[in-house]
Amino acid sequence: MNLTKDEYSKMVDGMVPRSKLLTDCIGAFLIGGTICMIGQLISDSYGMLGLPEKDVSCLTSVTLVFIGIAFTFLGWYDNIAKKAGAGTLVPITGFANAVASPAMEFKSEGLVPGTGAKMFIIAGPVIAYGTAASVLYGIFYYFSRF
Fold first, then answer.
1. Contacts with 31 (C-beta within 8 Å, 6 or more apart), sequence order
2. What is the chain's mean pLDDT, rounded?
3. Buried b / exposed e across 122-135, counting CB within 10 Å, b at 16+?
4. pLDDT score for 72
5. Phi-psi bin for 110: left (phi > 0), alpha (psi -120 to 50), beta?
6. Residue 108: how many CA atoms within 13 Å on its side-chain side?
7. 41 with 59: CB under 8 angstroms?
8. Would you call 27 helix, strand, or coil by DSSP?
9. 128 found inside a domain
10. What is the CA radius of gyration of the chain?
11. In total, how many domains does the chain have?
C-alpha cells in the first residue's frame, strides 16, 4: 500500500482517540482538592487537641503518608489515580504511593536488594533534583541579598 503523507496523516487522525483534556483536568482538580481537603480536616482535628502548630503539621504529614501507603497496599490508590490522573501525584499521598508501589512490586527480590534498593526508584530522582534545586536556590538567595 503506497500512501502519501497527507493520506497517512488522515488515516492516523481517524484512529487516534480524542483527548479528554477538560475532563482530565476537572478530575485532577476535584480528586486532588479532595485529598487536600482531607489533609486540612486531619490538621484541624489535631489542632483541636491543643497541640502546638509544629506538632500538628508533623502529625498531619505522617497521617497522610500512612493513608497513601495503606491505599497503595489495598490497591485503591491506583483506582483513584485512574480517575484523577495528576490530581493524585501532587499531594504528599502521591509521594507515599511513589515510594510504596516499587517497594511492594520488588519485595520478591528480597528485603535489601528488592524492597530497599527499589523503593526509591520513582521517588529518588524527585528527592535528588529537589535537594539540588533547593541548594541552588539557597545559593542564589544568599548572593542576591548583597
1. 80, 83, 84, 87, 88
2. 83
3. ebeeeeeeeeeeee
4. 87
5. left
6. 1
7. no
8. helix
9. yes
10. 21
11. 1
Residue written as cell 512490586?
105
Of the candidates 91, 74, 106, which has an alpha carbon nearest to the alpha carbon of residue 40?
A: 91
What percent of the chain stands above pLDDT 90? Answer: 29
Find the domain containing 72 and state its range. 22-144
Grid cell 493524585 is found at 88
Q: Counting Cβ atoms within 10 Å, is residue 36 exposed (0-12), middle (13-18) or buried (19+)?
A: middle
Cell digits of residue 99: 515510594
Low-confidence ranges of the chain (pLDDT < 50): none
* C-beta separation of 49 from 60 below 8 A: no
In a domain, 13, yes or no: no
Neighbours of 33 (CB within 10 A): 13
Largest interatomic CA distance in the chain: 75
Tell me, what amino acid is at 48? M
